[in-house]
Amino acid sequence: MSSPAEIPDQESPIKEASVPPQRSDGKHLARAESIAVVGLVASALYVLSVSWRRWPDAVIDAGHQLYTAWRLSEGALLYRDVGCLYGPLSSYVNALLFRVFGPGMMVLVWANLVVYAAILFLSYRLFRAAYGALGAFVVCGLFVWIFSFNQLVPVGNYTYALPYAHESTHGILITLLLVGAAERWIHQARTAQALGLGLLCGLCLILKPEFMLASGLVMVAAVGMRWRLGKPVRPAEILAWMLAALAPMAFFLGWFWRHMPLSAAFRSANQAWWTVLVQRVHAQVWQSFAGTDAPVNHLVTLLLASATFLGGVVLLWLGARLVARGVVAGALLVALPCALAVSQVDWMRAASFVPLTLLLVVAARLVGLFRPGRSAWLGRDSLGLLLSLAALALLARMFLNPRVYHFGFYQAALATMVVVAELSALLRRATSTSRIAVGVTAACAGLVLCAACVDLHLRARQFYSLRTLPVGAGRDRFLAFSPRQDADGLMVKSVVEELHRLPSEGRLLVVPEGLMLNYLSRRKSPVVEWIFIDLTLANGAETRLVERLAADPPEYVVLLSRDLREHGIARFGAIGQPGHELLAYFGRHYQILRQFGGDPFDVDTRGAWLMGLVPP
Question: Whole-prediction pTM value?
Fold first, then answer.
């Protein structure tokens, strides 16, 4: 058995995959792949067109993204003038776009579509290298039809056109770049590559925690595989990686230090991990998002879903093997689990099988890494391990409560793609000796995937068909739900029109959430907070906020409907509930100028009160 040091250097699978196959049917395969790629692009354009200008929610999250970009483009300072939970990278990228092209929702959308195109291209390239052209086509098709531009819940914002937080989509792109760069560095071991890896890891440090975890796992795995190949990491590579990794944080540290003390500048530059590891910012709703509100129940659901899925995979594999051996009855074993999946599965909740299955994939690949005499395995499957680890890291925040909707559009996307790619590779190995087996298995499995894509896309089309009310104008125009379905859009539209009739210099505070009003009316908010819930009002913060408002009151206040029951708030401002001190302050110092709809704090109605400061 050869020792790791005796293994010759191997080229990256990515490079190998780009070499045309030396077979008589190579031209036909290349033509088929070209048609498949064109089909992916056409599919992406189609689902994008169905969602066109229907991406943002009128009240939640989207306004914060637009407002932040606008304010920073005019010279405001992040964390001092505008609040943000995450690192500074995406906020300042968006601000730069507004600075260059002027403010406008569509400015960010076009930039996001460029990011999306890069994500789709990299996904296809990486999965093709790891799983072949068929596997890449299947998983990228799932990504396009399920995760890209579908609105699957009443709240928008969970698409690649206008995400609830741009750190999510920027992070996906950087993670895919990191995986590809790490795979090349494993086999080529160049200092310049270590420098690039360090820079990508450094960018993850100023995004969100899940991307920091992904970069860490990818780098640990890359170093481990270098060791397995007998290529220890050289000091020059370590130094290059460390310097590059610290560079993005150091840049923002210097940027913030110009405007605030060093300690505050350090916190601001490291906001991505500071709020999690040091400040421990907490919101009740995050527990339900993560599944930690009922961990035992969620774990039982995962176990049952995984057992059902793996049982179906076993039947598929056995049936495929039997058909490959000429046993016609084996087709029934192939068809049975697929028919049950098409007829019985609720695709909105189908992701429950992904976390534990992905853990099995990672475990199997790690066992292969350390199996004696298998170091040559690295030349073929190192990329699969890196993709699996990155997917596991991104899934961590919803491991107990996985879903394709909501945050799942980026947190569960890569994990689902890896699991489906592994299943595709397994079935391909089981049927490789028989064209009949390939056809039967591909038809049945393809039917299941098509059923999932069609079901979820039709759900999204139903939501989009109800979004007919134009809000905003020009670059900021988007379509909200018709008032018969949800009056949030009408409230925002009506209040913005009224604000345009008032003196333009007046500042505006929207409670409990609604920076979309500030952005569309181009009015500054007097406080750094962007939402008023347990996240920002607990532990005496509400009292301190009232004191700041009393010292520098805004000219206008809007009380806008926002259902906060998911945050544990039955009625905002009630005795013992967040907002009680705020509403008492507004009642003493402001008068109602205009009322729209009903009571803004009744969760069963929609309304808004525009209030003006009473002169002293």
Answer: 0.93
